[in-house]
Structures are given as C-alpha cells and as structure tokens.
Amino acid sequence: MHEDTSAPKPSRPKDSGTLIVVRNGRTGPEVLMGRRGRKAVFGGVYVFPGGKVDGGDRRVKPATDLSPDILKRLSSDEARARGFAAAAVRETYEETGLLLAAQGAPGAEAHGTWRQFGEMGVAPDLGRLLYIGHAITPSMRPVRFNARFFMAWADQMTGELGGSGELDDLGYLPIDEALSRPLVDVTTFMLGEIKRRAEADFAPVDAYPYFSWRRGQRYFRYS
Predict the structure, then answer these.
(1) Secondary structure class of 62 (helix, strand, coil)
(2) Which residues make beta-bridge pairs with 152?
(3) What spatial distance separates the first Cα and last Cα of the chain, rounded to whole Å?
(4) Rounded distance between C-alpha atoms, residue 20 and residue 148, angstroms
(5) CA-CA distance, 149 to 145, in Å (whole number)?
(6) How many Å apart are CA 62 and CA 94, to the nearest integer?
(7) Cα 211 to Cα 45: distance, rounded to the nearest angstrom
(8) Contact 5, 136 (CB under 8 A)
(9) Tag placement on the chain: N or C end, fewer CB within 10 Å?
(10) Three-state SS for 102?
(11) Phi then psi for 82, rounded to 5 degrees?
C-alpha cells in the first residue's frame, strides 16, 4: 500500500510576537487595537500590534531583560526567547508609534527599526513585559504563526499614537467593545485572557494558556 502524498504538508509556523497595550479607562481596562488592511494576513479584522520575528530581534541588546521565569518558559534558547519579546516591541513601535524602551544601546549590529532606537539612545525595555500566552495558527492555513502574546501598560510607553498606517481605526477599546469587533479566534481568546487577568487585578499567575486547533476544533490548555 502506497502512502498518499497528494495532500499538501502544513507550512511551518513562523515565530512572532504580539503586544497587548492596556490602559485604565473610565469604565475599566482598555486595549489598543487596529484593523488590518484587506490584503494583509488576517485582513479586515481587528488585531493587536505584532508580527514575525526578524533576525535582528534575536540579536538586539535590551535595556532590561525578561524575567528568568519568562525566558525559560518562552524557549530553551535565550536568544530565541528574547526575539519573541523584541519583535512585539518593535512591531508595536512600527505599527502604532508607541515605544516601550529605556536608556540603552541596542548594539552595533542593530539595523532597521533597531537603528532608530539607537539614534534615540534607547533599547527595548523587555523587563516591563508581562507574558500572556502562546498560540499557533491552524495547520490548514497557508501562512502560520507560532505566536507569543505579551502585555504592557500604556503609561509605561512613550510616543504619539500613529505608526506606519498598517493598522486602520487604531485606538483603545474597552474589552467588551473589542470583543464585538470582527476578530480571529486567537484574538478573541487572548482578549478573554486579559479580561480574566484584569478581574484578578493582574496578580501573578502560575499557569499560562496555549491556544491552537486539533482535528479542526479549538484547543487550549494551561501549564
């Protein structure tokens, strides 16, 4: 009996980082979101700022580091672990104009956006990040992401809200209002996780979610 090789193999998910920026609004926590353009991956839906990890994200020198427990949880390779967080900070700056940084130097090898950080005399302030969870895009999608989600408080960031224009209708939304916008499943799940954490006053947690799909069904666990 010959193995059927006609079905395409799932694409390998790309490492990516996402930053959920939260501020205290008049009625409770609000999250920063924008709508992707129609031609983009996840086009037409509301998302948090974020994107795939570039090589420079793994090499950049942060002003402050992730906590040891988060580093260990993200990857056994510390450079890869920092890459998830650095990508979230970089993409947020590019897409929203908001900067999570402290005085420092991103390193002589810094390029692109990290060079801009260096010109400002700052480097990514990874120590201010809270870790929220992990998600992997379903295997049937042509473009897949191995994503880590982080959170930062808006009042710990600098800059003017604007960015590159990749996100339309960019602004802060109360969580329940955000949940009513067009979303992909993972965004809905992570919004629910932020709501759960907010109800506990963002107290430290012992377990974090992993969200994916199995046999076409949503799957999650905490560990």
Answers:
(1) coil
(2) 21
(3) 41
(4) 11
(5) 12
(6) 17
(7) 19
(8) no
(9) N
(10) strand
(11) -65, -30
Assessment of whether the complete model's pTM goes beyond 0.85: yes
Could you give the CA distance from residue 9 to residue 28 in angstroms, rounded to a whole number?
A: 44
Please give the single-letter amino acid code of residue 21: V
Number of Cα atoms under 13 Å in the Cβ half of residue 91: 27
pLDDT in tens, 156-191: 999 999 987 889 999 999 999 999 999 999 999 999
CB 156 within 8 A of CB 100: yes
| Residue 96, pLDDT score | 97
State how far the Cα of 114 lies from the Cα of 107, in Å rounded to an integer.
Answer: 9
Helix (H, G, I), strand (E, B) or coil at 59: helix
Q: Cβ distance 20 to 190 under 8 Å? A: yes
Low-confidence ranges of the chain (pLDDT < 50): 1-4
Cα(107)–Cα(214) distance, integer angstroms: 41
The phi-psi region of residue 169 (left if phi > 0; otherwise alpha if psi is between -120 and 50; otherwise beta) is left
| Structure-token match 């906590």, residue found | 67
Q: Is 107 helix (H, G, I), strand (E, B) or coil?
A: coil
Residue showing tokens 């897949």: 144
Which pLDDT score is estimated for 37? 78
The pLDDT assigned to 4 comes to 47
